[in-house]
Specification:
- The protein is built from 6 helices and 2 strands, in the order ααααααββ.
- The protein has a two-stranded antiparallel sheet.
- A hairpin with a 5-residue loop joins strand 1 and strand 2.
- Helix 2 crosses helix 3.
- It is elongated, with a radius of gyration of 20 Å.
């Protein structure tokens, strides 16, 4: 595959983002921008494609460690850290709306917790701390259980 410099400008991810907006780029193009550059004969686009190949969606990436990401050709420690940081930022953006949220119904709890609980592979116990006006003070992971049960003392 061509290196980024050899690609026509109209096909480079950064230039495409500027021209068409981030929402019009593919997942691998967005990842290529985060990764920045390729290494030793492999372009950032190829690294990004390798990163998402074999995954159902980006939620599969959120559980990867730096060590696991480094197993992908072209992914060094710095690039792996950048990807993990970007995923964490995305997760935090999804949780921003919880500031100032009040809990009145089970639906409110669902909307608060759905992004934290999606695709978990084991049971967890979260505590949601509320003030007297049912406004959220904090949300904390209390316990991580096994695959099919949580024993809490």
């Amino acid at each position: 595959m061509l290196s980024m410099r050899e690609m026509p400008e109209s096909e480079r991810p950064r230039e495409r983002l500027l021209a068409f907006g981030a929402e019009n780029l593919s997942t691998y193009e967005l990842l290529a921008i985060i990764i920045g550059s390729g290494s030793h004969g492999i372009s950032a686009i190829e690294v990004a494609k390798a990163l998402i190949s074999g995954t159902n969606d980006l939620t599969d990436l959120k559980d990867k460690t730096v060590h696991e990401l480094r197993q992908i050709r072209g992914m060094g420690e710095a690039k792996a850290i950048q990807v993990i940081a970007a995923l964490e930022l995305g997760k935090r953006v999804l949780n921003i709306h919880s500031n100032g949220l009040r809990i009145h119904t089970a639906a409110d709890v669902f909307h608060l917790m759905k992004n934290d609980l999606v695709d978990l592979k084991q049971e967890v116990l979260y505590a949601i701390y509320l003030d007297l006006k049912t406004q959220i003070i904090a949300k904390r992971l209390v316990f991580v259980g096994g695959l099919n049960q949580s024993l809490i003392h």
